[in-house]
Amino acid sequence: MTLNGLSPPGWRHGWIEGWNAPVSHSVDIGNKSLEVGEGGQIFYRGINNRLQQYYWSITDQQWKHAWISDWTGSSDKLIDGDLAVGAGNQIFYRGMDGKMQTYFWQPTVNWTHDYIHDQVNNISPKCGAVLVGDGNQIFYRGTDDRIHTLYFSGGQYQYAWVSDWDENNLVDGDLVIDPSTNQLFYRGKDKKMHHYFWDNGWQHTTIPTPENISEECGAITIDSELLFYRGIDDNIHQIVKMEQTWIYLGMIGETNSAKVGGAIQVGENNRIFYRGIDSKVHTYYPGASIDGNYVHDWIEASWQAPIIHNINGALGFTAGNQIFYRGVNGRVNNYYWDETGLRAKNNEGLYGMEEVYPSPTTPQKTIPGHD
After folding, report:
1. 324 and 34 in contact (C-beta within 8 Å)?
2. pTM value?
3. What is the mean pLDDT of residues 112-116?
4. CA angle, 218 as apex, 80 and 178 as ends, to 5°?
5. Are residues 115 and 370 in contact, defined by beta-carbon separation less than 8 angstroms?
6. Rounded distance, CA 283 to CA 297, Å?
7. E runs forming strands in 96-235
8. Please, what is the end-to-end C-alpha distance for the chain in angstroms?
9. H or E stretch including 323?
């Protein structure tokens, strides 16, 4: 229903390139195969295992597609796992050889490929294995299910351990980072929330969670002092930091129709977005009550949303909670909040690599034996 030709305020659906974008531009089905970086730029693993990008062209006032992976390089530059995007939109990922690889932007050269550390080849292929934090410090789950790190020093990345040797503290599920503090949270073998933080060395704690954490990829998300996770009951549960202690608060939501069927992400203003069991995009937002209750809603009119708008894979967001996700046909879909009813997107803050400040962690010299 419209008033004077205007739609009421609400969420609107759009396509980044169109429902019929080339098949080669489709996104891999993994729950962490798409990341949103600076300027709202979308970086993703394609179905051909090449890194691709969408960026907003200020000049043309539209989204443009670009290839990051070159077509002439050897197959070991292809992506075989997750990707993470850091400062300067530097991309870190697991290559086909199990090593940590990177693409970084050079204004006069375009995208440049390199290896992060020639001796590190034990990155897990499992979903959720690669993270980047403050200072572009890299954390990853190894094939030994322990957490390792690569930090930038002296113009190169250096390797170090994070995990201790306690077998009870191994990773067995999702792994996330608070990028402002480099604190790490993950599902342990006991299905509980585990936590590593730096205090004159890496320290480990376990956060009591009465409801066990789902083993599914994308089950944990963090926003500063709030943690949310998908339980084995497929409901969303909340953990909050009170002073220096993380406390389990309980489940948010009550109805079966609000259950989780995919990855969850927390956006601005503690708003949660996720794939429901009906394959629609759902949201929880803080209610008016002071006890922190959350209100559930569908992004697009519940069951009335066309099937082609369904989500099947990764989900990310940018400023203003503009949502980008992999649709059922593999193309990148978009939801945005339309306050005016004019169905006009707010593209403020969207820009291309020409406006991005260079990454602080680009290699100072090429590693011998590699380009």
Report:
1. yes
2. 0.93
3. 92
4. 95
5. yes
6. 5
7. 100-106, 110-115, 130-132, 138-141, 147-153, 156-161, 171-178, 183-188, 193-198, 202-207, 220-223, 226-230
8. 58
9. strand 322-327
**Residue 209 pLDDT more than 70?**
yes
Would the pLDDT of 301 be above 80? no
CB-based contact 25:51 (threshold 8 Å): no
- Name residue 190's beta-bridge partners: none
Using CA atoms, how far residue 365 sits from 11, 46, 150, 361, 369, in Å, is 47, 29, 17, 12, 12
Average pLDDT for residues 43-68, to the nearest whole number?
94
Separation CA 208–CA 210 (nearest Å): 6
CB 333 within 8 A of CB 309: yes
Work out the burial of residue 364: count CB atoms within 10 Å of its CB; fewer than 13 is exposed, 13-18 middle, 19 or more buried.
Answer: exposed
Q: What is the predicted pLDDT for the residue at 368?
A: 36
Token pair in block for residue 70:
């070159």
